[in-house]
Amino acid sequence: MAGSSTTQRKKRKSKVQLRSLNSQEHLDVDKTVKRLRETKSDLRCESFFEKWKDELLIAASDLRHQVLWNKNEESRVSADHSGNCSSPGQMQCVCYGLGPFSSCVSARYQLAMLLLLLEAAQIELSDCFIYDPIFSNGEKAVLKELGLTVLTENEEGKRRANEPTLFYLLHCGKALYNNLLWKNWDTHYLTQMIIIGNCFSALKDRAIDREFSRDYNYISRITSVCKEILLPCPSHMIDVFSDSAVLTFPSSDVDKLSQSTWINQQEPQYEHCVDLEIVQKSKDTSR
């Protein structure tokens, strides 16, 4: 999709978010949960959902094998006498930047897709950590009613993948992806991540190379070894799921980067960015 369309979509989303922030709406939690479950059922019947599910399951299977291999390598193949290896553990999920799903149809469908993918990957709802500074108290109550874990602090995407983790970041700002990569800028942590979000190669192609390398250095450096599987999007859901992909960082590719890649991991500052597309802690109006 053209860069201008993406920018317009983000501006529309920002306007909806601003209206939600200024709203004093008191949600009917039960009614909102019911509507979400209906949206989830509708989405399950969409043919493109099967492709999303299949690609996630393939990525999750590859990730679990990679994590298990890493653990066995670290412990010199710590298998018991029967030949069984230790389990790589349960996968977690982190969702940032979903938007005001009670008032925005696109955000509601994105939340419904998240719930379907959690179910498909057998990730416990309580192991899905979700945050957006735009969430109203009513929306937080809905998310808790669904069983998700609502984070209370703006992490700005700076969460480390200490265990296999799916990051669900649809149509989020570049700074959020860049912060996430910075926090996990290590061969061990990167290979424990799956991201469902915007294609890094597309983000890079749409930008001026010099500025992109300066402002979003971590995305710029990882793109060459990031495995991207484009996800289908029907024409009637362009505003909801366009430009989405499953992103992973296979060890076989990440290990090709020079050792100097991992040195001097400076925290991103974005002093040159006018339109940052992320709510920073100092500007977080939810607290």
Automatic annotation (TrEMBL):
One Pfam family linked to the record: SRR1
Domain SRR1-like, chain residue ranges per copy: 84-243
Domain of life: Eukaryota
Cellular component per GO, a single term: cytoplasm
InterPro entries named among the record's database cross-references: SRR1-like, SRR1L
Family (UniProt): Belongs to the SRR1 family.
Name of this protein: SRR1 domain containing
Organism: Neogobius melanostomus
